[in-house]
């Protein structure tokens, strides 16, 4: 079974995408570093009545909420941060006052790290700054973590190809 992780920035999923995921037997979930990200999406509805459940983020001091995170090896997070920041992200001991862009990078890394930690197959995100193919980050991350990363548009093309093959 192919396991898909959706970044909250691709929600709400269309009914046709959900139908195709179900028909093709794909397992899907989402990752959110904070429940604030799910306000106004269909994630909350889905998580109560279907198979869509969140992957717990890895615990990050000062960022994670106890009860909604998992203790995890920080080496994945650090590797992701190094790639998506081109090595410019502050060291762990210097992260007490992150700027808003740095905080967004940290949260992007936390989301992908949760996907990698749970050994899922495809990560879908519309965050081109962190995971876009043009800056080389995607290729580095895919190679390092043996996963696929794509935008929602790219993923929908894959779904349509799969549907045509069945």
Keywords:
two-stranded parallel ribbon; alpha/beta; single chain; 7 helices; elongated; 166 residues
Strand order of the largest sheet: 3-2-1-6-7
As a whole number of angstroms, the C-alpha radius of gyration is 16 Å
SSE class: alpha/beta
Instruction: Describe the largest sheet.
Output: 5 strands, parallel
Average pLDDT level: 80
Helix content: 40-55%
Regions with little confidence, pLDDT below 50 for 5+ residues: 44-52
Write the layout of secondary structure elements.
Blueprint: E1 3-7, H1 15-23, E2 27-31, H2 43-49, E3 54-55, E4 57-58, E5 69-70, H3 74-84, H4 100-117, E6 122-124, H5 128-131, H6 137-145, E7 148-150, H7 152-165
Parallel strand pairs: 1-2, 1-6, 2-3, 4-5, 6-7
Helix pairs in contact: 3-4
Describe the model.
The chain has 166 residues and is an alpha/beta fold. The protein is 43% helix and 13% strand. It has seven helices and seven strands; from the N terminus they run βαβαβββααβααβα. It has a five-stranded parallel sheet. Strand 1, helix 1 and strand 2 form a beta-alpha-beta unit. Helix 3 packs across helix 4. The relative contact order is 0.17.
């Amino acid at each position: 079974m192919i396991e898909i992780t959706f970044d909250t920035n691709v929600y709400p999923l269309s009914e046709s995408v959900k139908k195709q995921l179900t028909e093709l037997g794909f397992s899907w979930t989402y990752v959110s570093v904070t429940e604030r990200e799910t306000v106004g999406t269909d994630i909350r509805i889905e998580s109560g009545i279907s198979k869509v459940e969140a992957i717990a983020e890895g615990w990050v001091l000062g960022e994670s909420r106890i009860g909604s995170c998992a203790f995890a090896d920080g080496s994945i997070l650090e590797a992701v941060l190094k790639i998506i920041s081109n090595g410019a992200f502050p060291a762990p001991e210097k992260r007490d006052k992150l700027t808003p862009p740095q905080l967004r990078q940290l949260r992007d890394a936390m989301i992908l790290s949760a996907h990698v930690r749970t050994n899922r197959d495809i990560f879908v995100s519309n965050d081109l700054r962190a995971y876009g193919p043009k800056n080389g980050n995607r290729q580095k991350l895919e190679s390092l973590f043996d996963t696929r990363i794509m935008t929602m548009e790219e993923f929908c093309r894959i779904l349509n190809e799969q549907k045509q093959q069945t």
